[in-house]
Amino acid sequence: MSQLHKSPINLPTHIASVSKINQSFSSDRQISDLVSDQEEYCRELDAAVRAVQMSCFLCQKLQDTWISDSRINHHNSPLTVAGWSVNTIVSWILSESLGSENVSIVTEKDVQTLSKTNTSELLESVVKTVNECLAEAPRFGVEEPKSALGTSEVLEIISRSNSVGSPSGRFWALGPLDGKMGSACGDQYAVSLSLIEDGEVVLGVLGCPNYPVRKDWFSYHHSYQRMISMLTPPTSETWDKGSIIYAQRGSGKAWIQPLLHVNKKYVWPNHAKQVSVSSVDNLALATFCQLIEKANSRHSFTQGLAQSVGLSNQPLRVHNTMKYAAIACGDAEVFMKFASAGNKEKIWDHAAGAIIIQEAGGMVTDARGYPLDFSKGLNLESLDRGIVACSGATLHEKIIDAVDASWVSSCL
User: Fold this and answer.
1) Among candidate residues 234, 253, 275, the one where a domain is terminated
2) What EC number(s) does its UniProt record assign (predicted)?
3) Is 178 annotated for ligand binding?
């Protein structure tokens, strides 16, 4: 491992080029031009995008395997292997790019769990999956390891995911496979990665392997989308190409680029275009992100509130983190989540999406209208009632007022 981490590798300082439409691209520009005129966090964002890009590549390769496996919550299921493998890939790339001494990650995965004697089969599967993925590293502009990683090396890499968060200093927040139910059936899921410094999110990346290019494709069942994607030419409109969405604090811009380029080849740098929130400011015309998973959420209150404020459009049904992508890309305008009593919102589920929406022109706060606080550890401890995300200030103010008016009468 000492040979793997002697010094940070030198990554190119550009990851994409801007386009007005999917098929028309301008010349390559540096990432600092795409995201911010400032060079601060440029290197970190470049590394984060590559890490999430490779993680999504890994997930796409394993997706058919875990869809056919019914053991969603089994400790050795393909879905579990994918989660641990993503953790390893992200930690490895960040360490290679920035130096392992500079990488501390907050995530749901605990290396102690993988180190237990009864998880040897799981660990072997993770090591095999990680090495297969890292063999493709040059396609993402990253030099692959000189030799395959062993069990001890994988455990050492994962051990960097031991941070518990802090109000000071720097750490990464990783959601390795958000949307378990969505991923299990081939629907929407995401890999989320954000950098938090002194309690503030400074950059965020969402990897969305199944995010469709066209909004209207959300209305079709995922099995139909998969069938169509196999029958249609692999153009830039192919639904299952997936996408990477990212933003940096203070840039006032958010960007989206495909996971795959034409003919399902990985091209680095990929092409990117700027995304922005919808301009709709009338609740009667707004689209509401309706969570598919009802667990750990006051679903009935959310639905009642949506009806009371006049959100009458057909809702956009999404899984977890995908709600942030939908609003940032202008495919929806409103999202609300009110946690069940005793349930804690994890910072890795919201940090990347929140900054992407904010830089795309939207607003994300708690239900009182205060900014989300990522300085209290693993959870959003000071969260007031719930989370509200909107495409603009007008919609946001109306939703916050409605929450205040409905909360007491709902007896929640």
Assistant:
1) 275
2) 3.1.3.7
3) yes
